[in-house]
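Moderator note: this is an archived Q&A kept for reference. The question asked for a predicted structure of one protein chain; the sequence and the answer are reproduced below.
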Amino acid sequence: MNSKYLNLSNSWASSGHARAYFDIEKPFLTAGLKQSIGPTTLQIGSMLDESIIEELDLPKKYKMQLGVTPSAHSYAGADLAADPAFLPFLSDSFNTLVLPHVLESHSLPHQVLREAHRVLMGEGYVVITGFNPSSLIGLQRWLRPESVFPGRYYTPKRVIDWLHVLGFEVVASSMFHYAPASSKSRARRWLNFLESIGDRWLPMFGGGYMIVGRKKEFSGTLVERSEFIKRRPKLANTATAYVGNEQTQGHHKKTQNSKLKN
């Protein structure tokens, strides 16, 4: 894991910029969770509005802190600390896995998704949120890095390609937050205007995205191998020949007057 990004992201999560961003993200993440949540859920990290998870009535819910050991940034209610690229769980353990902005803070994002696929049950769901580099928020990483989430951003298309390679079916996705990140309330009216036009005219340039993938369960039924019988063509014992208007059989045909008398 990248400890530098992890420490910076935990600091950003408590900022006003993060709270303003989570307010916009909340309805999209809530919609994604409601259609994919299962009885056994694992949440990795705390980069989301915690009230979303708390409002869901889940019989078995686990929270995992990013990192191999507890740190000063531990969040309340964490059941364990582990590296999401090497999860300490058996295969097929969870119905739902929530990855809120985990890929950006990890140096092995594809391995994180591979582990998510391993611990999910068949037909289980992974819910991912991330930041889009092709957006105003992506541009702010270079102009005002203190106002945005640190780490490496990945486009939603790239994340979807990873999911398909691993055997997930993308069942839902959405983009949002077309305005730059801001914690100032007086700029909210202008930001709301950018949100309205961005959703209609610039749908692929949202600063944040939410993706829901479902783990495909392949049937283990064996299909019997078809038997192909190669038939050899039957050869005729004799050849048929036509001499004049008469049909004859045999390799040699003796005809009348065929021999000249000496």
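Archived answer notes: Residues 238-244, 247-262 have pLDDT under 50 and may be disordered.
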